[in-house]
Amino acid sequence: MSSSIMGPPCSILFLLLLLVARAAARPLYPLPSKVDNGERQPLQTSRPYNIAHRGSNGEIPEETAFAYLRAIEEGADFIETDILSSKDGVLICFHDVTLDNTTDIAHRKEFADRKRTYEVQGVNTTGFFTVDFTLKELKSLRVKQRYPFRDQQYNGKFKIITFEEFIAIALDAPRVVGIYPEIKNPVFINEHVKWPKGKRFEDKFVGTLKKYGYKGSYMSKDWLKQPVFIQSFAPTSLIYASNLTDSPKIFLIDDVTIPTQDTNQSYWEITSDKYFDFIKQYVVGIGPWKDTVVPAVHNYLQEPTDLVAHAHAHNLQVHPYTFRNENQCLHFDFHQDPYQEYEYWIQKIGVDGIFTDFTGSLHIYQEMTTPPHPKDGGNDDHVMSLLHKIALLVSPYEKV
Ligand SMILES: *[C@@H]1O[C@H](CO)[C@@H](O)[C@H](O)[C@H]1NC(C)=O
Ligand SMILES: *[C@@H]1O[C@H](CO)[C@@H](O)[C@H](O)[C@H]1NC(C)=O
Ligand SMILES: *[C@@H]1O[C@H](CO)[C@@H](O)[C@H](O)[C@H]1NC(C)=O
Ligand SMILES: *[C@@H]1O[C@H](CO)[C@@H](O)[C@H](O)[C@H]1NC(C)=O
């Protein structure tokens, strides 16, 4: 569209019409066979993955459609989510087992009698649990921002979404965008939710991925078409899932003080040589809490541990979590500059992926420092910036 032919008011109208037409034509659950990946820009695989943690939740309430759409717009390679279940067995995107901290449940008088206390990973927790609400009831709630220091203007505007709706957002993206769903609190969910024919949470989870065409080992043709990493803190869930799908899996590792939720193994046990040898039969990498890679004391970084070298020696990728731009989340070493934090983790520590609350910042950092290879997810913007650089190099020699 040439702006010299069409004046600005005209082109805006045209754009709006285009948007309306697109929205109307967009199926809610596109079937994989109907999704044409052929011409879409592929996943970049030449630099560490930009994993949009709960969507762009630094800006928009976590795990909502809008947080994910924003993350895609900002350049995420993968959109990340936590899968839990409703009472009636529908898988939803939601982080906490309770609704209290990120929805308007406190103001919903009709649900006041649903408050319960359950043991969750060895701790008695009181609140409103997703597993005590049907999907219809959950859909009537509205999500809010978790942290008081973040933008509150979107509170009360967006609904909880289902796993299937999340998948539709990824499949509907204008380029190939991977998904990174977590089998969240599987012990608790299997205790509280029952599916027909004795199916488990993990069966339902993998079944949903397969229904939408997610399959294939890491870097296979099928995987590159619809990239996915399945993540979990529970080794038994990963091992069980590996019997159901060859999609790549990531073993999440918590703080050094926290034992695994299913097998009650210590941090030291699950990061031993012996255990890495065992778990690498099932997973392609680990997702450690970042302080286990580089501990911090009084908000200053200490010497890095050998976790990354150790994982790489076992041919395991490392995707640490979670990177946040705000001052209160940045160690003093980075001088309140999130780009310096990315620089350190990518250049010095050598990680393979990063879970970030601010996908846009990581994307801009990576575009500035390592534009993707044109045949590997590079786009016209990159070609244009390269031409621009060449022009700058050449211009001093031009006769004016
Ligand atoms: C949780 O509360 C129940 C009932 O009061 C109690 O029996 C149980 O020991 C508690 N569990 C933990 C881990 O504190
Ligand atoms: C809400 O968040 C606070 C602070 O992180 C936490 O201590 C509390 O357990 C959470 N409440 C519920 C019901 O999950
Ligand atoms: C995997 O499947 C096989 C064959 O169905 C079964 O014998 C085995 O117990 C399963 N393993 C796990 C961890 O579920
Ligand atoms: C988990 O392991 C610790 C340390 O070995 C032990 O003290 C604790 O009782 C175990 N918890 C469960 C639930 O088995």
From TrEMBL:
Gene3D superfamilies: Phosphatidylinositol (PI) phosphodiesterase (3.20.20.190). Its EC number is 3.1.4.46. Keywords: Glycerol metabolism, Glycoprotein, Hydrolase, Signal. This is glycerophosphodiester phosphodiesterase. SUPFAM superfamilies: PLC-like phosphodiesterases. It catalyses: a sn-glycero-3-phosphodiester + H2O = an alcohol + sn-glycerol 3-phosphate + H(+). Residues 48-366 form the GP-PDE domain. It holds the Pfam family GDPD. GO terms for cellular component: vacuole. One of its GO terms (biological process) is glycerol metabolic process. GO terms for molecular function: glycerophosphodiester phosphodiesterase activity. It is an enzyme of class 3 (hydrolase). The keyword Glycoprotein applies. Residues 1-25 form the signal peptide. InterPro entries: GP_PDE_dom, PLC-like_Pdiesterase_TIM-brl. It comes from Punica granatum. Belongs to the glycerophosphoryl diester phosphodiesterase family.
